[in-house]
Amino acid sequence: MTDPRVAELQARLMELGYMDSDETTEYFGTMTKTAVVRFQRQHNLDQDGVVGQLTWDAIMADDAQHYALMNGTSGDDVKEIQQRLYELGYLDSSSQVTGYFGDLTEQAVKKLQELNKIKVDGKVGAETFNLLYSDSVTPNYYSYGEESEAVKKYQKRLKDLGYLTTEPDGKYGKDTLAAIRQFQSRNNLVVDGYLGPSTRRALDSSSARPNAISLGDSGDAVTRVQTLLYEYNYLKKSHITGYFGEITEKAVKLFQKNNGLTADGDVGRKTMNALTGDKVVKAKSPVTSGGSSGGSSGSGASSGVQKLIEVAKSKLGTKYVTGGKGPSKFDCSGFVYWCLNQVGVKQSYLTSYGWRTVGKYTKITDFSKIRAGDIIVVKGHVAIAVSKTQVIDASSSNGKVVQRSFQSNWWKRNFICAWRIFD
Question: Rounded to 10 degrees, what is the CA torsion of 380, 118, 73, 47?
C-alpha cells in the first residue's frame, strides 16, 4: 500500500536499525515488511509483517529495542552473520552456518567481542556488525604473527601469483599480510588480511587472479609505474599522482600495444618487466584525458564514468536484499561494489560504514561539487551519482534499484563525503 504514514514508519524502523538507512517513501514494500517482521520477532509479536495498532504502538514506543541478533533468533540475517563468523574462524565449520542463532553462535560472538575489546554480551548489534566487516577486526584464525606449514603453503601460492616478493618461510609477517590484502582486493573478497576459508579457497582455485596494478589502485607502486611511463613519453609529468586513474590506464594500454603486449591496461609481471627493460619502444607523445568526468552521462562524461553509469542503469528494478552483492539482488553497498568491479575498478566489498574511510580515491567534502561517477556516502547509505542531481542506488525504502534525485534535505543532512573514482 501507499500512505503518508509509511514514511513515518520507515523512518522509525531505520532509527532502530531494522531497516537500512535511506530516504523514506510512502510505499510499503518487501523491505519494509521484512523490517517489520524483524521488529516483531525481537519483541515477541506475531511475525505477520502487518502493522496493526499493537505493532505500531510498539515501534513508536520510547522503550522500543534497537535491532540486534541474539540467542534464539532465526533468519537469513542470522545466516549472513554466521558466515562471516566462520570466515573469521569463530565458527569451526560451515555446517554451523544454519540461520539459527544458538549457543554455539552466541559463544562465537562473545569470543569475537572479547578479542576485539568491545562489550561482551553475545548479541550482534550495530557495533558488532560493523566490526565484523571492518579491516581492523581481530580474527580467530591464521593471522599476523603466526607461524606454520599452512602459512608457508599459502605464501608459496601468493609468490607464484606475484603477490609475495619475499621468500616463503611460514611466518605470517608484514609482507604476507600485505600480499593477502592485495590478493583479496583483486579477487573480490572482503579485505581483512586473514587466511580465512574463502581466501584459502580462492588461493587454491585455478581461477585465482594474479597480481597486477590496475585502475583504482594507489600508492608507491603506482607512482613508480607512472614515473616510468613519463620517462618513455607516455604520460605528462603532472599525471604522476600515485593514483591509477583513466589517464594512467590509457597510457599503459598504449605502452602495451607499442611493445607487443596484450593491451588490457593492467600492469602485471610482463608489463612491469617491459617497463623496466632496456628495449622499450617510446611514445611519440603523451596521452591526453578522455574528457571531463563531470556533467551527465552524455558525451561530456569520461569513458569510465559512462561505463559505470551504463552498468548501474542495467540493474534498475533489481530487488533489494540486505547483504545482496549481485547480480540478481543488492543492498546499497553490494550494488556499488558490484558495479565498480564490472567496469574494472578492483574495489573490495565494504559496508556503507566502511565507505566513510576508504581513502584511496579523491575525497569530495563539498556537496555542491558532486558529479557523475562519484560514489556518494551518506549516513548508513551509499549511491552512485549519474549527474549533478541524480543517483542510482539500491534503495531499501523502494525495495529495488532506482534512479532518483539526491537534492532533498535528507541527502544534504546526512551527507558525509563522496569519492571520485575517475579523475
Answer: -40
Amino acid code (one letter) for 298:
G
The secondary structure of residue 211, as a DSSP letter, is: P
**Ramachandran region of residue 100, left (φ > 0), alpha (ψ -120 to 50) or beta?**
beta
Residue 315 has pLDDT above 80, yes or no: yes
Cell 607461524 maps to which residue? 147
Distance (Å, whole) CA 243 – CA 159: 25
What whole-number distance in Å separates Cα of residue 183 and Cα of residue 208?
Answer: 9
CA-based nearest residue to 66, from 20, 32, 17: 17
pTM of the model as a whole? 0.66
Tell me if residue 205 falls in helix, strand or coil.
coil
The answer to whether residues 364 and 370 touch, using CB atoms and an 8 Å cutoff, is yes
**Number of neighbours of residue 315 by Cβ within 10 angstroms:** 21
Closest CA to 368 of 412, 421, 405, 409: 412
Euclidean distance between the first and the last CA atom of the chain, given in angstroms as a whole number: 43
pLDDT tens per residue, range 17-61 = 999 999 999 999 999 999 999 999 999 999 999 999 999 999 999
Give the pLDDT confidence of 157-205 residue by residue, as tens digits.
998 898 887 889 999 998 898 889 888 877 878 777 888 888 998 999 9
- The partner residues of 319 in beta bridges, in order of sequence, read 329, 400
Is residue 417 over pLDDT 80? yes
DSSP 2: B
* Phi, psi for residue 394 in degrees, rounded to 5: -85, 110
